[in-house]
């Protein structure tokens, strides 16, 4: 055994079995390939954390500047986060813990306190309990946004969850990194559109993501009975806001125990879309072609009796468009093929399969497996 093989075996033995299991599953039990995939996960997480770091500085800096001006900090000589004024009580309490720690390190300065406040602290100040502060002050921190607190808050919360996942070294096999980088750039664009463009342009995450050593599932199988009909009408798929998905390039629709022939390519995925008539009007006003397409989907859904709230949208290709694929015929699959008996995932319970069991609402497979008729083991989405 070579020294490299010995080192690989030693490292694999040190990684807890539950953590290593999904990597082994995706590599057919090959230890070397599993470790390569594991290493790739760390590299792509590190690249994405660069994007988060740039955003975090911009994000908190803009909020701090708006608060500093609103509470007339220069004139009063009191940092806004120590002000007894209504609306920032949480900041006074949170900064107390930070100040105590920095005091012990001999670094208790105003700027160090601001820098040491967590991303969760800043995103938390965009919550519904701060609506008044948003209207009087915080909206000025995001001149590139629509001006709606809920939109900025939902985007910031998505970034916060992603940040925590990579910061805590969680598995990233089911993380859609290109989507997350776009969301990070969107939040930076709320601070300043130029900052959003800069962040997306300088990001190296997509390049690292593309160099994954093992081909992962690239197609999302949707088993919601109404999903195929919605696709036919609006070239889109709609699901609940906040649901996490791995990065996929195509969608497939399971209808009556078969994979439908049309396999549309994913053009865009957007989360936390306001599912109201007012939201559709706002989207149309942006003049962005993607916004207009989403507005059409919202309007069609509301016309069919869809309720309000927020949704996540996949915009998809139509037959004949670049990247769109089509099977020669519908591909029969059994309930067991799509995950076997068990509860469905997502908003709705699993639909009944031909085998009598239930199937998950979402599962992952490979486009190649669908096109060659070998897609017998799509794995349920987490």
Relevant terms:
382 residues, alpha+beta, 3-stranded antiparallel β-sheet, 49% helix, globular
- SSE string: HHHHHHHHHHHHEHEEEEEHHEEEEEEHE
The proportion of residues in beta strands is: 5-15%
Mean pLDDT: 86
Tally the helices: what do you get?
Answer: 16
What is the strand arrangement across the widest sheet? 9-4-3-1-12-13
Rg, please? 24 Å
Counting helices, strands and paired strands, the structural category is alpha+beta
Q: In which range does the helix fraction lie?
A: 40-55%
Quaternary structure classification: single chain
Low-pLDDT residue intervals, each spanning 5 or more residues: 336-356
Overall 3D form: globular
Span from first to last CA? 38 Å
Number of strands: 13
Note the main sheet.
Answer: 6 strands, mixed
Task: Describe what you observe in this structure.
By secondary structure, the chain is an alpha+beta fold. Helices cover 49% and strands 13% of the residues. It has 16 helices and 13 strands. It has helices at 3-14, 17-26, 31-70, 73-76, 89-105, 110-116, 119-124, 131-136, 149-167, 177-191, 193-202, 205-210, 227-234, 277-285, 289-303, 367-371, and strands at 219-222, 236-240, 250-255, 258-259, 262-263, 266-274, 310-316, 325-326, 331-332, 351-352, 358-359, 362-365, 379-380. The chain has a six-stranded mixed beta sheet. A hairpin with a 2-residue loop joins strand 3 and strand 4 (258-259). The protein is globular and about 75 Å long.
């Amino acid at each position: 055994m070579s020294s490299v093989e010995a080192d690989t075996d030693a490292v694999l033995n040190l990684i807890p079995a539950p953590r290593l299991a999904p990597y082994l599953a995706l590599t057919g039990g090959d230890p070397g390939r599993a470790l390569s995939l594991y290493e790739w996960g760390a590299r792509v997480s590190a690249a994405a954390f660069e994007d988060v770091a740039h955003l975090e500085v911009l994000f908190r800096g803009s909020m701090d500047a708006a608060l500093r001006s609103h509470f007339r900090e220069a004139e009063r000589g009191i940092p806004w986060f120590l002000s007894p004024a209504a609306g920032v009580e949480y900041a006074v309490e949170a900064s107390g813990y930070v100040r105590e720690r920095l005091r012990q390190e001999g670094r208790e300065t105003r700027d160090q306190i601001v820098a040491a406040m967590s991303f969760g602290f800043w995103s938390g100040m965009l919550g519904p309990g701060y609506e008044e502060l948003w209207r009087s002050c915080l909206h000025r921190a995001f001149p590139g946004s629509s001006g709606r607190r809920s939109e900025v808050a939902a985007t910031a919360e998505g970034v916060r969850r992603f940040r925590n996942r990579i910061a805590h070294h969680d598995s990233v096999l089911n993380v859609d990194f290109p989507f997350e980088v776009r969301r990070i750039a969107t939040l930076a664009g709320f601070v300043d559109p130029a900052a959003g463009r800069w962040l997306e342009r300088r990001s190296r995450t997509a390049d690292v993501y593309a160099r994954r050593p093992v081909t992962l599932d690239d197609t999302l199988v949707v088993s919601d009975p109404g999903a195929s009909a919605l696709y036919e009408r609006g070239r889109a798929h709609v699901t609940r806001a906040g649901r996490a998905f791995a990065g996929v390039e195509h969608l497939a629709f399971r209808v009556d125990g078969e994979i439908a022939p049309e396999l549309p390519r994913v053009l865009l995925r957007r989360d936390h879309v306001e599912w109201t008539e007012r939201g559709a009007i706002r989207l149309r006003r942006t003049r962005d072609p993607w916004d207009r397409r989403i507005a059409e989907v919202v309007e069609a859904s509301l016309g069919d009796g869809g309720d309000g709230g927020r949704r996540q949208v996949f915009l998809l290709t139509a037959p004949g468009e670049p990247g769109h694929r089509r099977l020669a015929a519908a591909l029969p699959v059994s309930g067991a093929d799509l995950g076997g008996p068990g509860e469905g995932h997502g908003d709705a319970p699993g639909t009944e399969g031909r085998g009598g069991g239930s199937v998950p609402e979402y599962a992952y497979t490979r486009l190649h497996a669908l096109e060659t008729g070998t897609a017998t083991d799509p794995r349920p989405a987490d």
